[in-house]
Amino acid sequence: xxxxxxxxxxxxxxxxxxxxxxxxxxxxxxxxxxxxxxxxxxxxxxxxxxxxxxxxxxxxxxxxxxxxxxxxxxxxxxxxxxxxxxxxxxxxxxxxxxxxxxxxxxxxxxxxxxxxxxxxxxxxxxxxxxxxxxxxxxxxxxxxxxxxxxxxxxxxxxxxxxxxxxxxxxxxxxxxxxxxxxxxxxxxxxxxxxxxxxxxxxxxxxxxxxxxxxxxxxxxxxxxxxxxxxxxxxxxxxxxxxxxxxxxxxxxxxxxxxxxxxxxxxxxxxxxxxxxxxxxxxxxxxxxxxxxxxxxxxxxxxxxxxxxxxxxxxxxxxxxxxxxxxxxxxxxxxxxxxxxxxxxxxxxxxxxxxxxxxxxxxxxxxxxxxxxxxxxxxxxxxxxxxxxxxxxxxxxxxxxxxxxxxxxxxxxxxxxxxxxxxxxxxxxxxxxxxxxxx
Length: 438
Fold this sequence. Notes:
Low-confidence stretches: 63-76, 267-275
CATH topology of the largest domain: Rossmann fold
Number of domains: 2
Distance between the termini: 6 Å
Number of strands: 13
Oligomer: single chain
Largest sheet: 7 strands, parallel
Helix content: 40-55%
Shape: globular
CATH superfamily of the largest domain: Glycogen Phosphorylase B
CATH architecture of the largest domain: 3-Layer(aba) Sandwich
Structural class: alpha/beta
CATH class of the largest domain: Alpha Beta
């Protein structure tokens, strides 16, 4: 069958889709990856076929304060603190909060990063290429629109916690209690107009919840840490992919003392252009610990932090999948790839979660599971971080709990092992009369 992957146009989101794309390709299926031109080279470097659609997104430039008024709203995160999609406390999920989240995120994020031109190009390509399955990023609604327009089955591939699934379940419960004339769903309004523009309206063609949560969801988060939802879920083992990289020679040498990794990931460099946690505070916290620190920090981050402590080795990039097996702990920003790679290697974590999507609730669920300690960036001090690092290193329960979650992940089907399940789901969800591609 033909499978079209549709990631959000950021390298980290492409990386989250590569293992499943390769599993389908290795099983003999034809695979292509379509998104804005920004990440075409990242896709090609992964050995996959890139299909650029729409204009370049330039997501980092969209966060530059010299841009339009919309950018000022995005960078001033007061609205995000009030309408945080990662707010999962039941008492806070009021009808007003839920409506506010969709009213804010639909124009500020979804419509801004998935513009009409990109959707139109993807729809045209899907109608021409006729994929049997479109696997789409939960941050990009172009995928399900193209699937509906081309008659393909479609599934979300998550990169972290299923915030959309949870918020939609709660929001639909609210809307279903209202008279029809009082239901106001900003996401439905936008996607409904998009569908109509492509001649899609009416039962089975217009808007429904499948356009938001997929016909099913492929979820790499361990079941014990995933959000309990009603959406059809296909668990898959998280297989780390760090992009094209060389393993440095020093990594072959065993560390002389316990090694910890300190990283703020690449998401904020790529998407926002700055970090929320203070690099200086992070380095001060580990300076007098009897550990070897590998800090993945670039020149700009280091320039604002002062001299490096003698126990810190700074590298712009090193593949975490190769570094973490030698580490006793990791300090990081809560990004999905970093978090899941640490779990895959059974490494205890200290999380200073950046305010981006599900970083904060993910950190909290890790804390509850006993694999991590966490502190909000605005409350971070060198002393507090130092105490957390010492605790995860010296309290054996963190390593034991991390090993337990790692064992759970190893017992979850690999991307290759779920391919037959995807083939069956495609056959079950393909519209009547739709024949698969050769």
